């Protein structure tokens, strides 16, 4: 604080408090009501996306392995607000999951619609097909509930098959009464042959079962590919980034990466060592839907296996009389899923466990030194995807998206952070918490000072001319002007 020759006192108030003071003083003292031109702040950014900004246009690019739905850009309008709906970046959570349909005709099994092959030609039995019947349907079990945002349908493109029309999509957790699940989308028209149609849910719906039906139509339902998109799973590219994804046999489920080593063999110890060398471990701790997922993935690869015995991370505690089995992380296995006549502990040295394709991928105890068995590695990504950002906020530099790293959101001057400003990249590959928002702090007009005046000068300095002494103390949390120590 400094003193002028005429006895006035000057005080410079930086930061948020100063911004609020300037705004309040302008409201109180401006005679003509003029304001500066509105300018859009930092645009919002959806999760799993990067921002490319070009002046008044903000364009979004999805992280590797994610698909963009909606308009790829939004624009800054003359009133200082971003216009356009924010897109989202999702990944397909339906590929290779269990399927079903009302009937099957001419080799068009239900699994052809989520085999990862988008061909529109049914020759060679590559699409689904039902009999001609009233309201035929198809469904997929995602094995766990996902928040579903959109469904992509690729139709059959030849041979004069009846086009899809009046199609309805439902998403929910009921497997017994699929028609009672919440409605995601309804398309009352006809979808052209050999095309891909994206049907977005009117709102995000959380569900395990996705159900497609031709409503009120008597005909045959044929689908070449159905993809279900969610933001709550990471893509295969996050597990095997870049060019390595083409060389690695990887699948993703329940926020875990599974690497299927089915082209080589190793003992239990060697297999586990190879998994640990890449930051993971031999597959362990799975049950329920994860067991179903692994069994289905192995069944799909069965023709390529040299042996149908696959190492998993379970071992028996030492001791001839011990009957306790543990996962490799030390947890006791309470409900092992043994195959028929297992475990038999043949020759007293079968202390390791495999998934046995000859027993419907149930468990079998074997000797740990067998060196020709395949194995599955389990791990999570070493990084998180691009975090979402609310309008007007930014992420402070420098930052990294590696596991355990912390990012901090920053609001512009004159705004307060609503929510936690910090998020951590968790070991599961997702950011903790949610993105905070920025709220403009409006203290209202600053009341006049008794026995004094307030003058706002062009250089941003506020001059107080008073008879007595008044101190101004910045305080970020208060949103009202208070007497004694005028603060916002």
UniProtKB/TrEMBL annotation:
<dbReference type="InterPro" id="IPR051941">
    <property type="entry name" value="BG_Antigen-Binding_Lectin"/>
</dbReference>
<dbReference type="InterPro" id="IPR000436">
    <property type="entry name" value="Sushi_SCR_CCP_dom"/>
</dbReference>
<dbReference type="InterPro" id="IPR001304">
    <property type="entry name" value="C-type_lectin-like"/>
</dbReference>
<comment type="similarity">
    <text>Belongs to the fucolectin family.</text>
</comment>
<dbReference type="InterPro" id="IPR006585">
    <property type="entry name" value="FTP1"/>
</dbReference>
<comment type="function">
    <text>Acts as a defensive agent. Recognizes blood group fucosylated oligosaccharides including A, B, H and Lewis B-type antigens. Does not recognize Lewis A antigen and has low affinity for monovalent haptens.</text>
</comment>
<feature type="disulfide bond">
    <location>
        <begin position="411"/>
        <end position="438"/>
    </location>
</feature>
<feature type="signal peptide">
    <location>
        <begin position="1"/>
        <end position="28"/>
    </location>
</feature>
<dbReference type="GO" id="GO:0046872">
    <property type="term" value="F:metal ion binding"/>
</dbReference>
<dbReference type="InterPro" id="IPR018378">
    <property type="entry name" value="C-type_lectin_CS"/>
</dbReference>
<dbReference type="Pfam" id="PF00084">
    <property type="entry name" value="Sushi"/>
</dbReference>
<dbReference type="InterPro" id="IPR016187">
    <property type="entry name" value="CTDL_fold"/>
</dbReference>
<dbReference type="GO" id="GO:0010185">
    <property type="term" value="P:regulation of cellular defense response"/>
</dbReference>
<keyword id="KW-0106">Calcium</keyword>
<dbReference type="InterPro" id="IPR008979">
    <property type="entry name" value="Galactose-bd-like_sf"/>
</dbReference>
<keyword id="KW-0479">Metal-binding</keyword>
<feature type="compositionally biased region" description="Polar residues">
    <location>
        <begin position="99"/>
        <end position="113"/>
    </location>
</feature>
<feature type="region of interest" description="Disordered">
    <location>
        <begin position="99"/>
        <end position="124"/>
    </location>
</feature>
<keyword id="KW-0430">Lectin</keyword>
<feature type="domain" description="C-type lectin">
    <location>
        <begin position="253"/>
        <end position="369"/>
    </location>
</feature>
<dbReference type="InterPro" id="IPR016186">
    <property type="entry name" value="C-type_lectin-like/link_sf"/>
</dbReference>
<feature type="domain" description="Sushi">
    <location>
        <begin position="382"/>
        <end position="440"/>
    </location>
</feature>
<keyword id="KW-1015">Disulfide bond</keyword>
<feature type="domain" description="Sushi">
    <location>
        <begin position="38"/>
        <end position="91"/>
    </location>
</feature>
<dbReference type="InterPro" id="IPR035976">
    <property type="entry name" value="Sushi/SCR/CCP_sf"/>
</dbReference>
<protein>
    <submittedName>
        <fullName>Uncharacterized protein</fullName>
    </submittedName>
</protein>
<dbReference type="Pfam" id="PF00059">
    <property type="entry name" value="Lectin_C"/>
</dbReference>
<comment type="subunit">
    <text>Homotrimer.</text>
</comment>
<dbReference type="Pfam" id="PF22633">
    <property type="entry name" value="F5_F8_type_C_2"/>
</dbReference>
<dbReference type="GO" id="GO:0042806">
    <property type="term" value="F:fucose binding"/>
</dbReference>
<keyword id="KW-0732">Signal</keyword>
<feature type="disulfide bond">
    <location>
        <begin position="62"/>
        <end position="89"/>
    </location>
</feature>
<keyword id="KW-0768">Sushi</keyword>
<dbReference type="GO" id="GO:0001868">
    <property type="term" value="P:regulation of complement activation, lectin pathway"/>
</dbReference>
């Amino acid at each position: 604080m400094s003193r002028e020759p005429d006895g006035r006192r000057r005080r410079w108030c930086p930061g948020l408090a100063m911004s609020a003071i300037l705004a309040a003083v302008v409201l109180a003292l401006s005679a003509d009501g003029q304001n500066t031109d509105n300018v859009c702040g930092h645009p919002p950014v959806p999760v799993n996306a990067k921002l490319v900004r070009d002046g008044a246009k903000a364009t979004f690019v999805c992280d590797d392995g994610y698909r963009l739905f909606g308009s790829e850009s939004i624009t800054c309008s003359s009133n200082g607000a971003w216009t356009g709906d924010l897109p989202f970046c999702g990944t397909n959570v339906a590929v290779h999951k269990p399927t079903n349909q009302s009937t099957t005709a001419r080799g068009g099994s239900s699994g052809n619609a989520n085999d990862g092959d988008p061909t529109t030609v049914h020759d060679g039995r590559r699409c689904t097909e039902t009999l001609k019947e009233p309201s035929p349907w198809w469904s997929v079990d995602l094995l766990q509930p996902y928040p579903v945002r959109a469904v992509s349908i690729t139709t059959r493109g030849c041979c004069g098959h009846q086009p899809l029309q009046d199609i309805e999509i439902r998403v929910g957790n009921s497997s017994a009464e699929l028609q009672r699940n919440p409605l995601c989308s309804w398309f009352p028209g006809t979808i052209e042959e050999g095309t891909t149609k994206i049907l977005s849910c009117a709102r995000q719906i959380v569900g395990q079962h996705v159900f497609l039906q031709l409503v009120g139509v008597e005909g045959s339902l044929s689908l070449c590919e159905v993809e279900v998109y969610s933001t709550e799973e990471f893509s295969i590219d996050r597990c095997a980034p870049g060019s390595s994804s083409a060389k690695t046999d990887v699948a993703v489920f329940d926020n875990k990466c599974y690497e299927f080593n089915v082209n080589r063999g190793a003992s239990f110890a060697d297999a586990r060592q190879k998994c640990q060398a890449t930051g993971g471990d031999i597959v362990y701790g799975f049950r329920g839907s994860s067991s179903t997922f692994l069994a289905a993935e192995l069944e799909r690869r069965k023709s390529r296996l040299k042996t149908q015995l696959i190492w998993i991370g379970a071992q028996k505690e030492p001791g001839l009389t011990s009957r306790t089995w543990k996962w490799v992380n030390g947890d006791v296995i309470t409900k092992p899923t043994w195959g028929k006549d297992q475990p038999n502990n043949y020759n007293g040295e079968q202390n390791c466990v495999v998934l046995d394709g000859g027993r419907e991928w149930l468990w079998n105890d074997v000797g740990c030194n067998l060196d020709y068995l395949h194995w599955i590695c389990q791990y999570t990504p070493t990084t998180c995807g691009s975090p979402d950002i609310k309008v007007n906020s930014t992420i402070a530099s420098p930052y990294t998206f590696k596991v355990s790293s912390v990012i901090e959101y920053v609001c512009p001057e004159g705004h307060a952070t609503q929510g936690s400003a910090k998020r951590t990249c968790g070991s599961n590959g997702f950011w903790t918490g949610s993105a905070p928002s920025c709220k403009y702090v409006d203290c209202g007009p600053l009341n006049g000072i008794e026995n004094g005046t307030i003058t706002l000068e062009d250089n941003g300095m506020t001059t107080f001319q008073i008879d007595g002494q008044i101190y101004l103390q910045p305080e970020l949390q208060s949103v009202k002007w208070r007497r004694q120590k005028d603060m916002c």
